[in-house]
Specification:
2 copies of one chain form a homodimer.
Chain A: H1 4-11, H2 15-22, H3 30-43, H4 49-56, E1 61-66, H5 72-87, E2 91-96, H6 101-112, E3 118-121, H7 128-131, E4 140-143, E5 153-157, H8 159-172, E6 178-181, H9 190-205, E7 215-216, H10 222-233, E8 241-244, H11 247-259, E9 269-274, E10 287-290, H12 293-309, E11 317-320, E12 323-325
Parallel strand pairs in A: 1-2, 1-3, 3-4, 4-5, 5-11, 6-7, 6-8, 8-9, 9-10
Antiparallel strand pairs in A: 10-12
The structure holds a DNA duplex (30 and 30 nucleotides).
DNA sequence: AATGAATATGAAACTGATTTCATAACGAGC
DNA sequence: GCTCGTTATGAAATCAGTTTCATATTCATT
């Protein structure tokens, strides 16, 4: 690979001049500039990024932490982030935390090591006290998941309202016995907690008290959804509707319910969360809460770039609207 | 951020010695080693990757090109690659080519610029003549998609056999009028071509000649699948079965067919390709060809690392088995 | 006791860029 | 004709490591 010295030698100029041409500095005579550009082209010269980084302290790379990329919600989010980053000349390094504290920490260290200029976290595994110190090494932005900390920038959705809308939708359809499925009730972080309170609020407002055994926690997959139905079938006091924090779980519920002769939505109404592609594939099609994933990704990259360019910009919080998509499962 | 010089100053040793400790060189007295490790720990020193790269020419990063991450096939593949890379201490940079030649070239340049040590290509947009020169800058491995070039390593599936199995399965079920859906008939590359010949071979063997209007090309999405059914409905000579090169297209076909009163598999039998999660969600559940995605990812990383460590290892080709999963759509 | 190999360490060169400092040439203003 | 600001360029320092070369000990061998 040719280096800047090669270009200097060929053109008979100094490295400084070549560097100035590359970086569009002023005060270069146009004939020399031409000459340099021509030589670079000729020998196929391209500046070595490691050397630039070493000097310039910037990597043009942003890191994205997702719990798992195979979850469509996150693959769509990553898609949007990658597209927007590319537009702005940034590369994206993707990490899956797999819900593991250690892996998350490992990735946060990339910020410390200056392998990335900034990080977008779409989930949080460690305590905030553990994560916060990394902010001194570069900007961290929370997208989707969040903590109640004014010092960190976040792009988030009104999950509370989403859950409220979903639950109230079921109530408006005449349901009173409404079960609730969530990922982590005790996760301690914002997103799921918000949904919980949203559900709670809607129930309270309509003076409904759910049977405690209708609250299902730690449900993530299609299989988990199926297990929910099995549990419900063995109950004496059965719910007539379920609000699920995940489309996948909702799909599992629908599949298993049908398998057991339940009619949807007549015997059991189901609302999901995310509006994943599968929402239109299950039968009946799933009523769900749509999250503006693309906007979330775009906004996150936008904000992060702003933070990276302006070291001491204040933390910002962006909240995006959320929406109920009514289909056939309610 | 502390540097190696800080550690040297604190311990009263030279940078060389510190470097030797970091890199586990022999011939260091154990008391000095302890001292250095302690000092590093104390001031929270971590070697700057850019400086190491500049000298060492290795980035511990591999690049992965996928057409689009939101396609479950690729998000599962990326998942597997990322997991295996992490195990081997490699980071993964992910790029979406979005089927664009330019974007693919941009990413290949990362190899030239030494931003990545090697690249796994899961799709190919440019002519091989355009891509090949990049191999001089570092190893390139083809995974999933491939070209008929002995000089490049590949991890691939017997697509030909997959398509053959799927088609023959339909024939065994008594079908004679079998339509065929593919991504790109004229793409010119291995994967789709192999599937085409697999279909062809099965038909030929059983002395069947498909109506040319039953061959649908450039179909990728659920929507595309729906359009296929619409076209079929307007035909005089209708196929009784479809072999689709994609589960998503197959799902679209099933949804739209049911919408129009067709019974599956009685009026129309459908076979997909990939065994994506949605194959178990559509109703009836989709008979499909299962590809061993995880093994593919693992094998690819394994092979790539081998190539990166051994500069002049010969190109290898790994072919993984493929399998028919019979469900309810046939 | 002399020689040579193995062990242990440091100084300085090197990786490939950017940036600072110095300086030369040129034109404008007095 | 002299000073000053602008334009244009190069030498050398710098970034943070790794590697080469040199050298000083220590220990075993004859």
């Amino acid at each position: 690979m040719p280096t800047i010295s090669d270009v200097a030698r060929i053109t008979g100029l100094s490295k400084s001049t070549i560097s100035r041409v590359i970086n569009n500095h002023p005060y270069i005579s146009s004939d020399k500039r031409e000459k340099v550009l021509k030589a670079m082209e000729e020998i196929g010269y391209y500046p070595n990024p490691s050397a630039r980084r070493l000097r310039g302290h910037t990597t043009n790379t942003i890191g994205v932490i997702v719990p798992r990329i195979v979850n469509p919600f996150f693959s769509y989010l990553v898609n949007s982030i990658e597209q927007e980053a590319f537009k702005n000349n940034y590369q994206v390094i993707i990490f899956q935390s797999n819900d593991l504290k250690d892996k998350e920490l490992y990735f946060l260290n990339l910020l410390k090591n200056r392998q990335v200029d900034g990080i977008i976290m779409t989930s949080i595994e460690n305590d905030w006290e553990t994560i916060e110190p990394f902010m001194q090494y570069g900007p961290i932005l929370l997208c989707n998941e969040y903590v109640n900390q004014s010092s960190v920038s976040k792009v988030r959705l009104d999950q509370n309202k989403g859950a409220y809308m979903g639950t109230e939708h079921l109530i408006n359809k005449g349901h009173q016995k409404i079960a609730y499925c969530t990922g982590g009730l005790f996760a301690g972080y914002g997103r799921d907690l918000d949904r919980n309170t949203g559900y709670q609020k809607a129930m309270d407002k309509h003076h409904l008290t759910p049977n405690p055994s209708w609250i299902f926690i730690e449900r993530h997959s299609i299989e988990d959804g199926k297990s929910v139905v099995k549990e419900i079938l063995s109950m004496n006091d059965k719910p007539t509707a379920i609000f699920s924090g995940s489309d996948e779980v909702a799909a599992g519920i629908i599949i298993e319910a049908k398998e057991n002769g339940l009619r949807i939505p007549d015997d059991l109404a189901v609302v999901g969360f995310d509006d994943q592609p599968l929402a239109e594939i299950v039968e009946p099609k799933l009523t769900t809460i749509k999250q503006p994933i693309d906007e979330m990704g775009i906004k996150s990259v936008e904000l992060l770039i702003k933070m990276m360019n302006n070291k001491d910009s204040l933390a910002e919080e962006v909240q995006l609207p959320i929406q109920l998509i009514e289909r056939e499962s309610t």
